[in-house]
Amino acid sequence: MNKYKIAILAGDGIGPEIMVEGVKVLKVIEERNDVEFELVDAPFGAGAWFSHGSSFPEETKALVDVADAVVKGPIGLNHEESKKIPVDEQPERGALLPLRARLNTYANYRPVSLPKSLSHFSPLKAEVVGEGIDMIMVRELVGGLYFGEKESGINENGKRYVREALEYDEDQIRNILVKGFDLAQSRKKVLHNIHKSNVLKSSVLWNEILEEVAVDYPDVEVRHTLVDAAATALCLNPTQFDVMVMENMFGDILSDQGGGILGSLGLMPSACLGTNGKAYYEPSHGSAPDIAGQQVANPYSMIGSMAMMLEYSFGMVDEARNVWDAMQAVFADGFSTSDLSKPGSGVTMLSTSEFGDKVVERLKA
Ligand code: IPM
Ligand code: MG
């Protein structure tokens, strides 16, 4: 029997309620497989700052260090509430980036996927969605602007100024490109390289390294796309994309656009993969404090993140597929969550927990 310790960091806002639904699904997987999940809750995020005086308390650090995998809900508060927390302790800077650095989760996989049967959720025309959208964005997650040197102060003209650096060394770039190529090789053998080499020197180095890495993947076709053009192409012709690879900030922005073309960020799970088997899994969206506690959030992204954990951390590829299929079947049956459809649009609206229950029912069927 395989035993896995999973750190559960429910987070802020809608985090706890969507986490409950993910855990329901994990229980089903546990019941019918030769596997045991030890789920350990730990404080993380803005709530942790108020209750423990730190948005990433020591006990949580100790737990993520020993856990076999970490699942994490969204963190953060609304703009006004955030201001009650010192800038560097705010959970994005004080907890999330340190978590990424601690586990060195340099490879962030963000699937942007909508089967044809769910194309009614997309704001794009049916002919644009065609046979369905199915791409995966590979985002570098521990470098670039997010982690570069930062300084601010008063300059020689007496003006407040700020400078933050977009920094990468060649190993960081090579590591993420290898992930992109590997994934492309295992799928359609096309890699979209997203860059801005007409302006940024970081992209020039990125592309230089790409040429070197590409030698090991003669069967993968590389298509170069400038990041701004990629944004347009995602709307006009999303089905041309399969695997896209990009630096941290580009990935932050384009993956939110990915959620937009699907119809909601609620459909955006992600896997954050590090070195030495370390990994954590999280929805790509925020904590939506405005709807927290109302049971209207869509737990798909959280449950999908758990599916990615089953696949990438525990090698349970078939069960991961079953989870995706179950979620998509629930939606294809004419159900929706409130992020995806307006009332009166001919679908039956499900609450957060009703969606989780339906997925469990499907999984067991
Ligand atoms: C994401 C989020 C985070 C990011 C925030 C919460 C710091 O937007 O995972 O995309 O910018 O990376
Ligand atoms: Mg983001």
Topology at a glance:
Blueprint: E1 2-9, H1 15-31, E2 35-41, H2 46-52, H3 58-66, E3 69-72, H4 79-82, H5 91-103, E4 107-115, H6 126-129, E5 132-140, E6 150-154, E7 160-164, H7 170-186, E8 190-195, H8 201-214, E9 221-226, H9 227-236, E10 243-246, H10 248-262, E11 271-273, E12 279-281, H11 300-312, H12 317-332, E13 335-336, E14 348-349, H13 352-364
Parallel strand pairs: 1-2, 1-3, 3-12, 5-10, 8-9, 8-10, 13-14
Antiparallel strand pairs: 4-5, 4-11, 6-7, 11-12
Bound molecules: 3-isopropylmalic acid and magnesium ion (MG).
The computed structural class is alpha/beta
The helicity comes to: 40-55%
Regions with pLDDT < 50 over 5+ consecutive residues?
Answer: none
What is the count of β-strands?
A: 14
Question: Which ligands does the model contain, each kind named once?
Answer: 3-isopropylmalic acid, magnesium ion
- Biggest β-sheet description: 10 strands, mixed
The CATH first-level class of the largest domain comes to Alpha Beta
- The sequence of SSEs as H and E is EHEHHEHHEHEEEHEHEHEHEEHHEEH
Beta-strand content estimate: 15-25%
**CATH architecture designation of the largest domain:** 3-Layer(aba) Sandwich
- Structural domain tally: 2
> What is CATH's topology name of the largest domain?
Isopropylmalate Dehydrogenase
Terminal CA distance reads 24 Å
